[in-house]
Amino acid sequence: MSTAKIIDGKAISAEVRAEIAANTRRLIEKTGITPGLAVIIVGEDPASQVYVRNKRRACEEVGFYSEAYELPEATSQEELEALVERLNGDKNIHGILVQLPLPKHLDEEKILLKISPDKDVDAFHPYNVGRIMIGNYDFLPCTPAGVMELIHRSGVSVGGKECVVVGRSNIVGKPMAMLLLHDNGTVTVCHSRTKDLAEVTRRADILVAAIGKADFFTADMVKEGAVVIDVGMNRRADGKLTGDVDFESVSQVASYITPVPGGVGPMTITMLMKNTLKAAERTI
Ligand code: NDP
């Protein structure tokens, strides 16, 4: 029995943000270009409103210019597409983010296709998804990119390791598997149809849990000494945030573990800042 080292997402996130802020200052001094991010939110979803506020705050922290568009629920497809097109042509804006989910009457896929791939700082456009697949990319989706940063900055090497990703969404699981593969991991992807999940997860040297089920992964599903990354963000009945991993028991067998909150969560917005800086640098 061991007690896992905690991977401190808040501290690593602060470290990365300080680097982004320093590079931003250099970019402004050298070129006069200030990275600019536009965030669009449609409707009144309270969780989305919190994300948008946090993104604006993060922009201020690293020295970016930012614009927030808070549009009414009744916004039409045409209006939203027209806004995205205008921002595509706006020299002060380098990154465009449309906060998901959108209200049901809007066609999410069509909107995401409208965002110029050069300003697609979420890396959801099929063009950027394809570039990630072939390993020649400018932008990485923020959550998986944040996980890789946590792994690397904790001194964990991926090369040759058994990596098991549980969850196969386009936002987390699939790109996560691809990034671990690019980093020379031997990667298995599990999902709701996987037979004997615990048998697979017990093989993992690096286990990434991204299913959205509170405290689902217990110590008996984890190999002694594994690195456990918990992407899950679930609300308990008492309102408390919890991950997909049963932290109490798993931290007794893992060698490294990310807590929730304070693990992967803080990295996601930081990676958005990194992509926006990159988008601005690419315009030079
Ligand atoms: P999705 O709901 O899109 O995908 C969940 C995936 O988990 C699916 O592939 C599903 O399988 C799989 N799954 C569900 N139940 C099981 C099970 N019992 N056994 C095995 N696999 C299962 O979720 P997301 O990928 O968008 O998000 C996953 C979690 O990560 C959520 O808790 C979300 O809140 C969190 N999240 C956190 C972020 C952060 O910044 N920290 C950012 C984004 C997400 P199948 O495909 O077969 O249905």
List keywords for this structure.
single chain; 284 residues; alpha/beta; 6-stranded parallel sheet; 15% strand; binds NADPH dihydro-nicotinamide-adenine-dinucleotide phosphate
Please provide a written account of the structure:
With 284 residues, the chain is α/β, with parallel strands linked by helices. It has ten helices and eleven strands. It has helices at residues 9-31, 46-62, 77-88, 108-114, 126-134, 142-153, 173-182, 197-201, 247-250, 265-281; strands at residues 5-6, 36-42, 65-71, 95-98, 162-166, 186-190, 206-209, 227-230, 234-235, 241-242, 256-257. Strand 5, helix 7 and strand 6 (186-190) form a beta-alpha-beta unit. It is globular. It starts with a strand and ends with a helix. The model has no long low-confidence stretch (mean pLDDT 97). The protein binds NADPH dihydro-nicotinamide-adenine-dinucleotide phosphate (NDP). The site of NADPH dihydro-nicotinamide-adenine-dinucleotide phosphate (NDP) has 25 residues, from helix 10.
